Every structure is written in structure tokens, then in C-alpha cells.
Description:
The protein is of the alpha+beta class. The protein has helices spanning 2-28, 32-56, 60-73, 76-82, 86-108, 118-128, 163-168, 174-183, 207-221; strands spanning 134-140, 145-151, 155-160, 186-187, 194-199, 231-234.
Amino acid sequence: xxxxxxxxxxxxxxxRQSLESLINDHIKNGEYKQAHQHQKALFKVNQSFSLLRKLxxxxxxxxxxxxxxxxxYSKSEYEKLVQDNxxxxxxxxxxxxxxxxxxxxxxxxxxxxxxxGQEFDDVIYKLIEGKIQRFxxxxxxxxxxYLDFKRSTDxxxxxxxxxxxLKKEYIxxxxxxxxxxxxxxxxxxxxxxxxxxxxxxxxxxxxxxxTLTSRIIYDGFGYSNIKNSSLIVIVD
Length: 236
């Protein structure tokens, strides 16, 4: 699973670098329309890359911010500023050490639950290839808790139905709902379900969807609400 994730992250990183290079070339040549088109493509790639990083580690954005601060503290102008001031130097060294330890700690936190198995892979590919139009992935048979995966023209729509019931029964707590919103879920117009629209523009393999589903299960619902979480029902 980690190897697959690293592969797709590498793909997105290479795509980012290629697009950034093209954009710079277009700007140098005064080709602003072409630069704008590639900028839109870069925006989509960055979205997917950021999502993958957040799925890989929920603390990705915080790590990015801390690494930015650490980079600033390591710049030569800071070194010049503190070189003749012992107190300032000690302060910045302590700050840098704190940031380094904090970053290390956050990087060590990963998603402990991952969906694996050929059955889930197979059904995802069947959905994408149009061999099936919809399936349900059950997380708890007793309370009929499941994720609904449906194919649209250019997306896979992941739905958490019975939103009000899940709230009432405290299966979806306020903190759980906040996590799901952070992942990209939105409340439907009739307020009966939570919906995630997974765009297929840059689909490479099932790793993104598997990791996203893992985050929904682990962070969105918690283990206490998950039982018999391997039943897949194809709905046509």
C-alpha cells in the first residue's frame, strides 16, 4: 500500500514540476493564454497532491507550515542577525529545535487503518470502467451504516446516507462531521446525506480512493462504530 502511495505521489510531483516549467516558459515568451491554461491544470494537480498528502498523514498542512517556519529560521539573514547576540542566538536555536522535534513527531503519525484486498480494488475499477454503476460498502450491518459509491460522467460520488439519523444516534459527532468536512464532504441540499465528489481527471489507481475511504472509516466514524466492514453490495 505504501509503495503504491509513493508511486502516485511521485507521479503528481513530476506532473507539478513539468507544469511549473511550462508555465515559466510561456510567461517568458509572453504566451499568457497558454500559461493560464497550464495554471488551471496545475491547480487541479496541486489539489490532488494535497489531498493525497493529507490522506497519507492528517497533519500534512501543519507540517508544511512548520517546515516553512523552520526554513525561514535557517535563512542566512537570521544567522547574521543573531551571530553577535548570544541571547537571540539561543532563542532561535531553541525555536529551531522545537520545530524540528514537532515536525518529526507529526510525520510519525500516520493513518493506522488501511483498506486492502483485491475485492475492493476490483469493484473500484469496475465502477470506473463503467462495468457497474454503483456499489455500497458496509461499515456496520447492525445499524445499516455504509458508504455509497456511484459513477457519474467524470466523477465518483461517495455518499454517506441517513445523515440526520447518524447525528441523532451520535455516530456522527460534531468532531466527526468536522473531519468529514475537512476531507471534502458537503451536506446535500435536502440535508439527508453527506456527499463527496471525487474527480477522475487524474485517476491513476485505486490508492487514493482506498486511502480516502480509510480516513472516512478511521477519522469520520471511529472504530467503535465499525463492524463487519468488508461487505460490498453491487447496486445496478
